[in-house]
Design a protein that fits this description.
The chain is of the alpha/beta class. The protein is built from 19 helices and 13 strands. It has helices at 5-9, 20-31, 41-49, 55-69, 86-98, 142-149, 162-165, 197-204, 221-227, 261-271, 310-313, 316-320, 322-333, 351-367, 378-387, 397-404, 409-433, 450-454, 483-497, and strands spanning 79-82, 110-114, 153-158, 175-176, 180-181, 210-215, 230-233, 253-258, 304-308, 337-341, 438-441, 458-465, 471-477. Strands 1-3-2-6-8-7-12-13-11-9-10 form an eleven-stranded mixed sheet, with helices on both faces. A two-stranded antiparallel sheet has the order 4-5. Helix 14 (351-367) crosses helix 16 (397-404). The chain is globular, with a radius of gyration of 21 Å.
Length: 507
Amino acid sequence: MDVSFNGRMTRLASIVVLSMAASAAYAHNLISETRLEYLGVDELNQRMERGQLSSVMLVRHLLQRIERLDKQGPAINAIIELNPDALDIAQVLDKERQGGHVRGPLHGIPVLLKDNIDTSDSMQTSAGSLALVGQPAAQDAFIVQRLRDAGAVILAKTNLSEWANFRDPAVPDGWSGRGGQTRNPHVLSVTPCGSSAGSGAALAAGFAPLTVGTETIGSIICPASLNGVVGIKPTVGLLSRSGMVPVTYKLDTPGPMARTVRDAALLLNAMRGSDPNDPINKPSVIDATDYTALLRTDALAGRRIGFPLKFGTSAEGLESDPQFSRALEVMQAAGAILVPVELTDPLSEQVDEALWMGIKRDLPRYLATRTAMSAPTLDAIVRFNEATPGDPAYGQSVLSAANSIDFDERTYNALWQKIRHENASVIDDLLNTHQLDALVLDVGSPGLNVIPLAGYPGIMMPSGVDADGVPTSVFFYGAPWSEAKLLALAYGYEQAAHARQTPAFKP
């Protein structure tokens, strides 16, 4: 399931076998490429403004790269379906630019979407499941409408852990019955982590400058960590969930994934907005917030940041994660005031039950928006999987448990109120007791589940790679609706550390 980030971090073994010779050949070929695929949004815009690049040229280049590296060569297998209309959309947007109309910084910029986000085009929205293949969604998800309005080119859908990691615990991260197994472009034999595995791997591999993932518990921050990219897990409700295959609206959220903090902030700006179909009680100023406004190189100066106690009191922290220790040194050198704290995990009971009840409650409501489906109900999906389990034939214990559980709205709400309160109190107490601006966490310490269970925001940042070439990371988190502050701190760290590395496509 999507419930244990730390558990997945111990599964760095073993997903694929690739010929070392083939991998080496493709890694060598990458050296001579133009690296257009790794340019940020600002640089792409500048080239377009100077007439050195067009959206059509960029889309064509990325489609060629996907052809070479996703299905052939190292076979990252991050793309589940290409948008056949992408070049036509890019051509229209180029004509708009030539006519003097530029919608904003995402005008003509390709974006990839996780395959559990509705698009009203010819592409499927299947959550990686064969059971949902059929008539495409009738309407764009709210965030997709926002992206189209901003001038983004929806280039493709990305693979994911089937049902966002809520089919069965035995299903490997990054595998779906429809899409197969996604690989980590840094080290192909290492898990890409789930469930937004395709979004993270595609971004790292240079298939698009921006991707959108979704998270219930860990599904943005884990693939961001292990694919060496930036992942924003927003406060629950900051971004609309309309048109997204749900687990539970108590925790579900889409979120930006990018290679830089600024690009992630630009993507967040484009997707935000108030959706009448997903009402949430949020501060009135949130929808007008410019998430790039506080991005300054000196953003860490004078900020009080809590960090795990073990990195300040013994050699344990340095031995367990030297890159995180180095990240703390970078923050301190940039003017941050580091405060040792202990993040405790309340280990909320009945989380599984609450998640199963969420599926039982929210999935049927989503399925009712999809017409002409071969499996239009949760019960029909379970029966479909029994008859067509996929290859290999993984089980579906989570879906079966959700289908069988007795649902009661009052019990459901009470469970989530308890879970959210227990986890939110842990973070609130640390912020208030130590007068902190934010906190940082390594991925090896307990507590990473606390942030999503609280519904609070966090940003996963690259901190380098380990001795085996596997990306390492640092996680910034804080109070609800504090995305602008967290982005500023993450940007200050990014500009001081220069830690992100492009993948080596190692076997």
